[in-house]
């Protein structure tokens, strides 16, 4: 094959531009990224080799080798992992293959990283981090049964591909270091950087050093292993520092912050496994970018890495959890697909789920401030569990925080506190969902509850309206949306008024579109009218949101409730009684409806008509 020059995909070119032009701090992460890739490549071939020994080609002395050449100013990182075919090289090193890179670009724009270069090093950019320290990068790689190929780039718009003469499977990456990055030729620097980032990797990281034999004066190459290679989850808890946990978390999560909580335990008894799980504090950005609804943990069987693709070790609503599970009860030599079906995994999932929920409950109890941050970032995901995990519904509900009519804006309460403070004789947990606090805190739906001193939870996360109804009840108390269904009312009191309003009510129902019933209510104090949905209907603001997303929303059939004590309601009733054909009756009735629509959080279907009706009255 002749040499071939190819262009990087545009997004990648932007990324490389940013890396080569503005990355100065945290440069040492390039070594973590490259060693991490080498380690993954070894894991991959080792796993494939379980079922297909041929692919190992007799090399299974897993090793990642680092070699510095002072004269040539190069640092080489090589592995005997899975290697890449020509197509794979183009796919992996020429396009934006991994989600993190895309996320990085989005984030880079958002944070204006070009002008804030110090921030950049905090993001993982994978292989391309090489260009933070190198002005020329060569990758020579060979996959089983494929010819070796050489990729070379200066990190500008293009890369070249050509034949290579590597004979053994694996990948060798040579960095020609920039003038100001030659410190990475220094053995001490290499040693400390590897220790910091990669000490726990389960494959040996070896530094090739030269030693002069004192007698013969001949230089000999020596191998020095620089990582201790102890799988962190197998070590006793009390011997592991927070820093070590933190580095390991960063290694598996691509997050740059430390985790909020670390869960490390051995399960013993019916099923035995070791788990090391982390609850992040903030969303790692691969998570912000990718909407994968499943949870992924790294599964090891008897210390052999099987996959990070397993999505049934934790339910999807705990997908923010990162970590490792190592089981010696699972069979090693089976395909991923068969393993995925193993009933043991079910048991492991139950156990892990319980642990995570318990940890979160403890966090809420002991470190409320930190819990609030967690809640801010992940509660929308956690709430999905109300829908999917019936067994743990109440435990999940216990972890949710809400605004409330009894608290200042921004302050939160929870179901447990709500129930504890319930008014005497109150049977239901009352809530109102809406777009934001200010749009609902003065809502007519709240008037009677405020007057009675009853607390109403204000649910302003868009997902609330979908998932909270699924909870149905909490500690035996029914959940009740105050804008849906009937509320407890003084029926006796309304009886007399109903007689007076009977004729007008029939008239209004025939006149108004989308209204299946008109009735009197005692739920209102200051407002004249309110729209009430079915017990299980969506709230108007959610319908609005769905419409904006281009979804079909079936026409809503609501109940219009009128406050018989209100002056306007009394007036229109009197006008109707005097002369049912008076045009004012029609426009006033429509105005009552219009204002109820607005207060419900929905949009008027005929805003111009509303303005005309209003103006007619104002000019009157
Ligand atoms: P990530 O590792 O997060 O996927 P990178 O940009 O670091 O992103 O690498 C892109 C892809 O290139 C990897 O997913 C992997 O398939 C491939 N790759 C990188 N380094 C190696 C290596 N040493 N051996 C084999 N494949 C590699």
Concise structural overview:
40% of the residues lie in helices and 20% in strands. Strand 8 and strand 9 form a beta hairpin. The radius of gyration is 33 Å and the shape is elongated.
What can you tell me about this protein's structure?
There is one protein chain. By secondary structure, the chain is an alpha+beta fold. It folds into four domains: 4-225, Histidine kinase-like ATPase, C-terminal domain (Heat Shock Protein 90); 232-372, Ribosomal Protein S5, domain 2 (2-Layer Sandwich); 400-481, Rossmann fold, CATH 3.40.50.11260; 491-619, Heat shock protein 90, C-terminal domain (Four Helix Bundle (Hemerythrin (Met), subunit A)), CATH 1.20.120. 40% of the residues lie in helices and 20% in strands. The chain contains 23 helices and 23 strands. A hairpin with a 2-residue loop joins β19 and β20 (477-481). α1 packs across α4 (99-110) and α21 (567-578) packs antiparallel against α22. Mean pLDDT is 87; it is low at 117-122. Adenosine-5'-diphosphate binds next to α2 and α3. Residues 33, 37-38, 41, 79, 81-84, 92-93, 97-98, 100, 126-127, 171 line the site of adenosine-5'-diphosphate (ADP).
